[in-house]
Amino acid sequence: MKRNLFAVLALSAVAAAAVPATALANTSAGAKVVNVVEVTYSDTSGKNTFTAAASTTTTVNLVKSALNATTAPSGGTVAGLGCLASVDTVSGGTVSAIYALSATANGADTYSLTMGDNTPSTTANVTDITRTYSTLTYNGGVEATNPASRILGSAIPVGVKDSQTLLFPGGSLDGFAANDIVLVEIGPVGGKVKRAFKVAEVFQGTPASHANADGTTAYTSGKLSDTQAEVQGYLKLAAYENTTVTLNGTSFTFGGGSVAPAFTTPATAPTLGVPVGEMVLVQVDVKASASSVTADGYVGYTVNATNGSNSTDLTCTAGFYKRSQLSIRKEVRNVANTTWGGTATGNPQDILEYRITVKNNGGQAAMVSIKDAVPAYTTLVTHNTYGDKAGGSVFATITDSLGKTVAVTTAVDADAQPTAIKTGFGDAAGTAATKAINFYLGDTSTQGNGGTVPSCSNGAQSTQSACQANGGTWLDTYTILYQVRID
Amino acid sequence: MKRTSNLLAGTVGLMLAAMPLSAWAQPKVAITIKAEKEVSVTAKGKQVKKRIAAKGVQPGEEIIYTLNYVNSGTDAAKDVIISDPIPAGTSYIPGSASETGDLSFSIDKGKTFKKPTLLTYEVKGSTGKPEKKVASPDDYTDVRWTIPQVPAGGKGSVSFKVKVK
């Protein structure tokens, strides 16, 4: 008994190994199964031969199949979906990522697209969220923004016409057009990859047909050779070149790696019976504002593509929307002394110097202004060591991280800024005790409104990493100095 | 089904009426082809299989082809040969062709027809010598029935199944 069982097991193992790898062979939707039957016969004399023929046509239906969501190809091949790394983003800024959706059905289908939060949500510490998706052309141009649906072609190759051209059943190439991107499974068994090519030409072809074609009429005429043979359709494919775009302030490259199709070479031959599916690039743009001062913001998102039966979710998280981490410190010293501290002592007529340090370790803050006042029992010092200026009375300086210094006058006189990236402005309502002193810091500041802190010394970049990557200095610290005389 | 046979009878009648009275006796064989598929339906709580017209099929589904022939002539038809190439994109299902008359198959697109066991082809064996192999039903390109005689007014049908690849 034991021996018999072993024998049975061994047999089934052999049977399993014998199952061919192409068992899931498939036929394109829209392909026509045309069956022509001919009857030949002769009369009783055997001298006269007659024929009759009839035919019937069955159309292969679409077998719906979910889209594949993947990372956009760069070397030309695609595997799974890897969410693009979260990048430092200014609050209120946009995080972008490019992914790809590709068809796996036996025919063209319409996929409805929607975008929303992910489930469970990874969205945190943000407000004013805008999620946008765009379908892209092969070279990154925007095809449509927030399209409700997209048709993707897909068909199953039945042969190879030449090194660049795949054959399909006549009339089964709906949904394909020149400049579409398609994924073709190529390579030997054990080394198969999905490679992206660009469609150069689509030829629809025509299915086989026969005049006596209704399947119900009893035909007494016609013959097999009247059949109009099938003209197979084809997709002529070409190398899909790489394109580089700027995404989140850095370069992002995608494309087919300019690898030309070589379908007649065994090592890069296509797998017949496996769908050649259109791939559409999808750019995701997520805009949000950091709403917390204790943690950076994140936005979860899901792009859903469904054909009514099968659903695909492209789920990732965008971050980090940098929170602002502004700190302010006020120190004082008697100018006769060199040590800064929280307290200082002085005699009447001694001069006290105040130093205010504003630093932002986090994301950009806008409208940064400092309100101060001339301390009680003191008088603001003007025309002092900070210099003098015609038309105004210099009483303070503002210095940024690069050491650029601007003189501040009591009058509203649009102080000259050292560079196009503004350092700051200020004013004093008067020199007497309790009179208001204001400082307006950072880029885009004006004589009356605060600016952006930090900013990049080259102006264009809005995050520290992007600024430094572009050779700029991240201007995150501003130092204000002013002096008062003890009454 | 009933409608189809009525139509057929109507056609036959028309043809008989159109025959000139002085004509020599002559056979006239008409043929129809019908594509159907089997679907499972629930009738009175029981699952039953039902045949419906196969206008559209999914890959992997079977199509049942029924070929009806009728001799509406005034004389017997001799050496009636019904030839049907297996449609492109499908493969013949072993054992599905009706055993009517002399049933044979081709693996060379209708050039030669043989009984399944006689359908062989040669491949180069491991020793380099040609080896004969029996063709598998996947390789069949054509199916053919040979019926010695269909008398005047006689009719019949043959059928076979294919699987859509």
Give the structure's gist in a few sentences.
The complex is a heterodimer of chains A (487) and B (165). By secondary structure, chain A is mainly β.
Rounded to an integer, what's the Rg of chain A over CA atoms? 37 Å
Biggest sheet of chain B, strands in spatial order? Answer: 2-1-4-11-6
Q: What is the CATH class designation of chain B?
A: Mainly Beta
* First-last Cα distance of chain B: 28 Å
Fraction in helix of chain B: 10-25%
CATH topology of chain B: Immunoglobulin-like
The largest pleated sheet of chain A is described as:
12 strands, antiparallel
Q: Cα distance, first to last residue of chain A?
A: 114 Å
SSE class of chain B: mainly beta
Total E-strand runs of chain A = 33
Helix content of chain A: under 10%
In round numbers, the mean pLDDT of chain A is 89
The H/E string of chain B reads HEEEEEEEEEEE
* Multimerization state: heterodimer
Structural class of chain A: mainly beta
Could you tell me the number of beta strands of chain B? 11
Your description of this structure?
The complex is a heterodimer of chains A (487) and B (165). With 487 residues, chain A is mostly beta strands. Chain A folds into 2 domains: 241 residues, no CATH class; 161 residues, Immunoglobulin-like, CATH 2.60.40. Chain A is 5% helix and 45% strand. Chain A is built from 2 helices and 33 strands. In chain A, a hairpin with a 2-residue loop joins strand 12 and strand 13. The relative contact order of chain A is 0.15. The N terminus of chain A is likely disordered. By secondary structure, chain B is mostly beta strands. Chain B has one domain: Immunoglobulin-like (Sandwich), CATH 2.60.40. Helix content of chain B is 10%, strand content 49%. Chain B has 1 helix and 11 strands; from the N terminus they run αβββββββββββ. In chain B, strands 2-1-4-11-6 form a 5-stranded antiparallel beta sheet, with no helix packed on it. A 3-stranded antiparallel beta sheet of chain B has the order 5-10-7, with no helix packed on it. Chain B has a two-stranded antiparallel sheet with strand order 8-9. Chain B starts with a helix and ends with a strand. The chains are: A mainly beta (487), B mainly beta (165). The interface between A and B is large, with 42 and 50 residues.
